[in-house]
Specification:
Layout (H helix, E strand, L loop, with lengths): L9 H8 L4 H8 L46 E4 L4 H15 L3 E4 L26 E2 L2 E2 H13 L3 E6 L9 E2 L5 E2 L26 H6 L13 H16 L4 E4 L7 H17 L6 E4 L25 E4 L4 H7 L16 H4 L7 E3 L18 H12 L4 E6 L8 H5 L34 H12 L6 E5 L4 E6 L3 E6 L5 E6 L5 E4 L6 E2 L6 E2 L3 E4 L4 E6 L3 E6 L5
Parallel strand pairs: 1-2, 1-12, 2-5, 5-8, 8-9, 9-10, 10-11, 11-12
Antiparallel strand pairs: 3-4, 6-7, 13-14, 14-15, 15-22, 16-21, 17-20, 18-19
Helix pairs in contact: 1-2, 3-4, 6-7, 10-12
The structure holds calcium ion.
Calcium ion (CA) binds next to α5.
Length: 546
């Protein structure tokens, strides 16, 4: 059973996330890409047209090794569109002290420049130069990586390697380019797949070898192209970048991507550096030719591990916003890898929103307290390696609003981060800084404290409250009820009085410790006596026993 709803075709979703491409993407989704998909006349003899009969495509065995991030209780944050200098400061002042394992930063390569500075230009590479992007200069990037490392925070780079741009112009670092010509890399026409459109997600060949929403698709079947991509990532590794998000991995053949990963892993090993952490963006809600499982084997042969995004997990957020008016929190009691048909927890990168889905219809910062509660689940439950989205406020009711780039000045330059006071007060054009929210920060700490424990003693009230224990170390209860909830709920905790982490937690240690939060009594039978105000949660940890 799938609790996550089926989504529209991925091409359309992508197009909706990049409205300047809507016309093209929507056409693709309607199968009307005749002109762009005109592979016929120019196609070399002997090349099978996309969708024309069965083609044997090489596959990777689904064997893998865990990256270990889920088991360690790690959490990373995506500082969407932040400038390098701001990321560096955040690592030192917030991320390190809060216990975030890593930060995912914006694609650092030279990118297209488009009037109005939409966010998605960062996903249209012009070269692999770091000289200047909207986030800053190469010197600032290098400084950021070093300072984050020193603060105990790994830097993950968003690696856009499936495609280049959809048009022509001058890149952020000054490179003049056309759709199939990028002199700084260099790439020229023969480095790209013969242009064709994706009009069916039932045909893997189209999904992987044709143009995603009209973006020039790199021919990753060529060793020379793979070498150039690998060289970009190896260079980042030498600067101290610790990991990579493989953007649009679903649109690259797994064996070709594996070859790139292997080149980077081998270089790291040869140079005495740790192998990078990798995760692949594979949007898989079921029902398509390309699946997340196709990518499990990435990196295995070269001695590494590659995690994969689990988009079905978005359904968690839908329970919290009671999407469709019928979903209830109590249904989360049934969450498991089997019942939700999700990937193994030690393979999955999970989130309740990302930069694409927050522009669609999922839970987002404007849901305020409900957004916080969704994170209490995300970070309280042990499944997966969680990513926390940190963004800027925008209007998702209009195409222009969804397109909007980061807060910027009159010249279009991204402005320094100044966080809104709260999720609720963030005004359009302000940085929201969701990752600084006290509830989310407390949960990052909790996840680490209970790492290694499973989920047991699940409980629900049949309505909009759910609870579970983390072995004998922790307890989480969440209520989306509109009125106060009183209940006696089983826990794995020893009897005593505990101080709720979310409302302030225990201050100090030993006999002098005080409780700044709500006190919760666990009785001799191990039951917590809960009195939860509407729309709140309580989180207990064995170390917060008074
Ligand atoms: Ca491709």
């Amino acid at each position: 059973m799938l609790s996550a709803p089926r989504r529209p075709a991925a091409a359309l979703r992508r197009a909706l996330a990049a409205p300047a491409l809507v016309a093209l993407g929507a056409l693709a989704a309607l199968g009307a890409l005749g002109a762009l998909g005109a592979c016929g006349a120019e196609r070399p003899v002997g090349v099978t047209p996309p969708g024309a009969g069965p083609v044997v495509r090489p596959t990777l065995p689904p064997s893998y090794r865990p990256s270990g991030r889920a088991a360690a209780g790690d959490v990373f944050v995506h500082l969407f569109e932040w400038r390098w200098t701001d990321v560096a400061r955040e690592c030192e002042l917030v991320l390190g002290p809060a216990g975030y394992r890593a930060v995912q930063v914006a694609p650092p390569q030279e990118h297209a420049t488009v009037a109005g500075n939409p966010w998605w230009v960062r996903y249209q590479p012009v070269s692999y130069s770091l000289a200047r992007s909207r986030s800053g200069t190469e010197a600032e990037f290098r400084d950021m990586v070093g300072r984050c490392r020193a603060a105990g925070v790994d830097v993950y780079v968003d690696a856009v390697v499936n495609h280049m741009t959809a048009g022509s112009g001058t890149g952020s670092a000054g490179t003049a380019y056309t759709k199939y010509s990028y002199p700084t890399v260099p790439y020229a026409q023969p480095d790209f797949h013969t242009p064709c459109g994706i009009d069916s997600y039932q045909v893997a060949r189209q999904v992987q070898d044709c143009e995603l929403v009209g973006l020039a698709d790199l021919n990753t079947g060529l060793a020379s192209v793979r070498q150039k991509i690998a060289a970009y990532l190896v260079g980042l590794g030498r600067l101290g970048v610790a990991g990579f998000r493989l953007d649009a991995a679903k649109h690259i053949q797994p064996v070709q991507l594996d070859s790139i990963v292997a080149l980077v892993n081998q270089a790291a090993r040869a140079e005495g550096r740790p192998l990078p952490y990798w995760f692949a963006e594979v949007i898989d809600y079921g029902g398509e030719a390309v699946t997340a499982r196709d990518y499990w084997g990435l990196g295995h042969a070269s001695g590494g591990a590659v995690d994969v995004t689990e988009f079905k997990y978005r359904g968690i957020g839908d329970k919290f916003i009671q999407k469709g008016g019928t979903q209830k929190l109590s249904e989360l009691r049934q969450f498991s890898e089997q019942s939700w048909q999700v990937q193994p927890g030690d393979k999955a990168v999970v989130f309740v929103e990302n930069h694409d889905t927050q522009r669609q219809d999922g839970v987002w910062y404007r849901d305020g307290q409900t957004y916080r509660l969704a994170h209490v689940w995300l970070l309280g439950h042990p499944y997966g390696y969680p990513s926390v989205m940190s963004s800027y406020a925008f209007d998702r009711s209009s195409g222009a609003g969804r397109d909007a780039g980061p807060p910027s000045d009159a010249s279009g330059a991204t402005t320094p981060v100044a966080c809104a006071a709260s999720l609720e007060s963030a005004a359009i054009g302000e940085w929201v800084c969701e990752h600084r929210d006290p509830t989310i920060r407390a949960m990052v700490r909790f996840r680490k404290l209970v790492a290694g424990t499973g989920v047991d003693r699940p409980w629900d009230n049949g309505g909009n409250a759910v609870a579970f224990s983390r072995g004998d170390r922790g307890f989480v209860a969440i209520s989306r009820e509109a009125t106060a909830l009183s209940a006696s709920v089983p826990t794995g905790l020893a009897a005593g009085t505990y101080c709720d982490l979310l409302t302030g937690g225990r201050q100090g240690t030993g006999a002098g410790a005080t409780c700044a939060g709500t006190r919760v009594v666990v009785d001799a039978g191990g039951a917590a006596r809960l009195a939860l105000p509407a729309n709140t949660a309580v989180v207990l940890h064995v170390d917060a026993r008074l």
